[in-house]
Amino acid sequence: MEREHVVVLFQLPKQHVVSIAQDIDMAAVQTLDWTTEGQVLSAAQKQFYEKNGYIVINNVVPQYELDRWRHRFQEICERKGVRPEFTVMKDIAIAKSEFKSGEKAITKLQDFNEDPVLFDYCKYPAVVDVVRDLIGTPKCNLMSMHTMLINKPPDSGKLTSRHPMHQDLQYFPFRPAEHICCAWTAMEWVHRGNGCLVVVPGTHKGDLLPHEYPKWENGVNKAYFGIQNYDASMPRIHVEMQPGDTVFFHPLLIHGSGTNRTDGFRKAISCHYANGDACHYVNVEGTTQEMASREIIDIAKRRFKKRGIDVDAIELDFADIWRVRSKPVNGNRANL
Ligand SMILES: O=C(O)CCC(=O)C(=O)O
């Protein structure tokens, strides 16, 4: 029996996948203009992003919205309104501790595009306006590709709350990279003590580097890959932020986060956006992205199984998984 394709199952058209080596027709892709003012960003702010690969904007999201999303996350931790497509992740040290459930057990919630409360973050106008200034045009079809609410737990002493230095593009089978941007909003005061983000400015101008699981003594969380032979002497910045402040960053920017040495959780909500008019899926077989793609396919298979989908009866390829996970933010599903 011929296997059904996963996108057909989700009533999505099969997408066009190009080879990673074969250049996307850049003439058809609108080039980004760093010289003029955007809708909300000044030319100087856009140029800061272009040079450094990130920019922090203060007070993007008000406290009452953060409270709404925190409340929804806490409900999910109490197993209320858990949607089948959610990916709920636990810290490796906590999973082995007495905290088997509840907010203390969950380190990350992913794939909340279909959750009406949490998806409000991805649509939040003050966030979307900045993203459009960085990767698109005022009218472009923006896609929410990857969503996360990160609940970095107090470290158990095993240093597993760290996130190794990495580039997010390793996970993504779509390009061009400059039309992808992450928005990461602090849900509380984030500082060195509770493991704020750490970025290496300017590294978005380099290549996608090979990644691997770091050889940490007490293990490492699922799919937390770090850059192989990472050069820790590169000058880095600890991005300390107040609640509602948002850092926007390029998918090639090298970043990670430190240990949470406090007794509280360090929460942040984030969305990776892609300009759906400019980006296309690419085939990552035979590239350094293969390992990350295998892990993500694996996680997706387990999700589909939980939803009663017979994964042996369907074709599951990496780009299709992203097509199923992604959602238009404001307009149509163009290329993605
Ligand atoms: O929020 C953090 O600690 C880091 C998140 C991150 O870099 C990621 O999930 O790719």
UniProtKB/TrEMBL annotation:
<keyword id="KW-0560">Oxidoreductase</keyword>
<keyword id="KW-0847">Vitamin C</keyword>
<dbReference type="GO" id="GO:0005777">
    <property type="term" value="C:peroxisome"/>
</dbReference>
<keyword id="KW-0223">Dioxygenase</keyword>
<protein>
    <recommendedName>
        <fullName>phytanoyl-CoA dioxygenase</fullName>
        <ecNumber>1.14.11.18</ecNumber>
    </recommendedName>
</protein>
<dbReference type="GO" id="GO:0046872">
    <property type="term" value="F:metal ion binding"/>
</dbReference>
<keyword id="KW-0479">Metal-binding</keyword>
<dbReference type="InterPro" id="IPR008775">
    <property type="entry name" value="Phytyl_CoA_dOase-like"/>
</dbReference>
<dbReference type="InterPro" id="IPR047128">
    <property type="entry name" value="PhyH"/>
</dbReference>
<dbReference type="GO" id="GO:0001561">
    <property type="term" value="P:fatty acid alpha-oxidation"/>
</dbReference>
<dbReference type="Pfam" id="PF05721">
    <property type="entry name" value="PhyH"/>
</dbReference>
<dbReference type="GO" id="GO:0048244">
    <property type="term" value="F:phytanoyl-CoA dioxygenase activity"/>
</dbReference>
<dbReference type="GO" id="GO:0031418">
    <property type="term" value="F:L-ascorbic acid binding"/>
</dbReference>
<comment type="pathway">
    <text>Lipid metabolism; fatty acid metabolism.</text>
</comment>
<keyword id="KW-0408">Iron</keyword>
<comment type="similarity">
    <text>Belongs to the PhyH family.</text>
</comment>
